[in-house]
Amino acid sequence: MSLQAEAAVLGACLTSPKAADIACDLLTSTVWQRDAHLQVFDAIRDCRHDQTAPDPIAVTNRLARSGKLDTVGGPVALHDLEAQAPIGLNVEHWCRIVLDTARRRHVKAALERAQTAVLETEDIDGLVEDVTADLAAGGTARAVVNPADIHAAFEQRVTDGQPQKGWRLPWRQLEWFRIPDDGLTIVTGLPGSGKSTWLDAALVGIMDRTDLKVAFFSPEMSPADNHLHELVRTKVGGDPNARLDESHAAAADLLSRCWWIDDDRDSTPSGVIATARRLVRDQGVKLLVVDPYNNLEPDRGGMGDRQDLYIQALLRRLRRFARTEQVAVVVVAHPRRTERIQGTDAVYKVPTAGDISGGQEWWNAADLILSVWRNQSGEEPQDFGDPRTVKIVVSKCRFGKWGGMGSGQLTFDVESRSYR
Predict the structure, then answer these.
(1) pLDDT digits (tens, 9 = 90+) for 14-55
(2) Pair 219, 353 in one domain
(3) Quick one: 125 and 233 in the same domain?
(4) Is the pLDDT of residue 140 over 50?
(5) At how many degrees (to 10) do helices 91-117 and 124-136 cross?
(6) Bridge partners of 331?
(7) Based on the number of CB atoms within 10 Å of its own CB, is 142 exposed (0-12), middle (13-18) or buried (19 or more)?
(8) How far apart are CA 283 and CA 286, in angstroms?
(9) Containing domain of residue 125, as a range?
(10) DSSP for 132-150?
(11) What is the pTM of this model?
(12) pLDDT of residue 143
């Protein structure tokens, strides 16, 4: 079954660049049982890195240049793999089988080594620790980071005086932190608090001052022209219909800097990440927005009964995508519960990552956690603020290069859809 799954994955990759993106995102070089399959996978991954479609001809040429074509069985072997592409190209399903069987091989080998060693070792406790660590590694053979790379990055940071990095927001009141440029930012807030509206205003302000390009996966704002209309309203500071010339120019500028991932085509994490990766490499996109995360449809196989494991895997994939592609990923997440402030009828506490379903996973994975809050009911404005006053609270900032924790206030203007 393992070899069949490996062939199915490679066949899908040779047939579809999108399948290749998904497979390369999910699999590593350590999971392949057949060495010839590993060689083909490495060639596919090299093509992908060079932004070349990994079709049989391109992969054949790549293997020929590296002297490995005969090792894998020649061009005929690649065409045989292509013929084994699964119907529907459900590459995620076959990737899971490859990962599962690789994990089982790893566990079996670790236990066999332990069975041999237990009769010879004098340090049984040390053996237990080694076996436990080996099993926990999951067969991924994690590489040690190159010390030379670490040192070069350290020297650059020290030499540059550790300048603040990331995307600076357009408001002086929030200048103490930035959106991580290669990390995962979580934006949360009560329903109706304006977190998506605030995020739109922040991105429009950043695009007005920088060369930022953005990819949106925003099913709640679809169709895309609805979202564009709201972005234009924010950019021109009023009703687009009342400022036609200005609005047309604003729309043209935004359409040259923004892309919308079609949520009707493929709303799975694998599909969204694969599309975003192509936009990063082909269009120079530097920031991906997922708004909200729960509109992502689980990959084939679903999340089962363990939503926390699904969220953990999702956030790890998004954070890894941010790191490997050097882009910002911003995820909007609705809290699953809120607590009312004691002594009030309808004033609720500022939600944090702990209020999102699977809260601990959000806290662990996020590089920056930001909450958007306002006194929506208007109750006791002298204590909790006017409904137009928006409070931005940063409860986690992983590294000082992006700023720190704290809070700031802005005033929202409904007509211009802007914050001041």
Answers:
(1) 888 888 888 887 888 888 888 899 989 989 988 877 777 888
(2) yes
(3) no
(4) no
(5) 170
(6) 186, 290
(7) exposed
(8) 9
(9) 1-144
(10) HHHHHTTT--PPPPPHHHH
(11) 0.71
(12) 52
